[in-house]
Request: fold
Amino acid sequence: MIFSKKSAIFVTLMVSIMLLNACGKATDSTPSEPTEGTETSSSTTPETVPAKVSATAVKSLDCYPTLQATESEKPRGAKLSWTQCDNDDFQVYKVLRSVTNPDPQNMESNVVYSTSERGATSMVDGNLSSPETYHYKICVQSRVADFSCSKAVSIDYTE
Reply:
């Protein structure tokens, strides 16, 4: 059996979708089949497949925290509070901070607070310089190392 270039792309795409589904990921659409007798190009330019495929990871940690930041008077600093994660797989909260990136990402160097106490839903970051804008994010880590993070919030700190 001889496959055309479009048929080979279609088969590759379908196998990819099946693998995504088997790995616990979902798709919201499937590609249409190529029509019989469609000519293929002998050009080396890559073809575009007329299909939209998107996948969303299904996480075992179904916990999406929200974060609020305000200035704290005593002690001086940024007061951060977040919603509690009630998921059984909860392991740790990590507060990320950056002055350069409005959406802190680095789970190693940007961590300013970490706790495994599920009921701990606030902290004051007192190690701040004035005037400066600080960007924060709260992330929840599960026992299997999945992360769910809040949207970033910013605070303009002045003493």
About this structure: The chain has two domains: 5-36+49-57, 67-157. Residues 67-157 form a domain with the Immunoglobulin-like fold (CATH 2.60.40.10). The beta strands are 25-27, 55-57, 67-72, 77-82, 90-98, 111-115, 122-125, 132-142, 147-149, 153-157.
